[in-house]
Amino acid sequence: xxxxxxxxxxxxxxxxxxxxxxxxxxxxxxxxxxxxxxxxxxxxxxxxxxxxxxxxxxxxxxxxxxxxxxxx
Length: 72
Description:
Blueprint: H1 3-16, H2 25-41, H3 46-50, H4 56-67
Helix pairs in contact: 1-2, 2-4
C-alpha cells in the first residue's frame, strides 16, 4: 500500500468510524464502501489502498474490534 493510501485510510477511519463498536457485517461493509468512495473522490486509486490490504472490510472490522477494547 502506498504511504498516501495508508495515510488516507487511517485518517478516514479516525474521522468516520462510529464511536460505538459494531460487528454487524452490513454496517462494516457500508463503511468500507464509503471509505473507498471517499478515496476515489480524493483522487486516490483503489489500487493504492488494496495493494497490501486486500480487504478494507477486514481492516475496518479489526479497527472496530479494537475501538471498544476488544482483541489486542
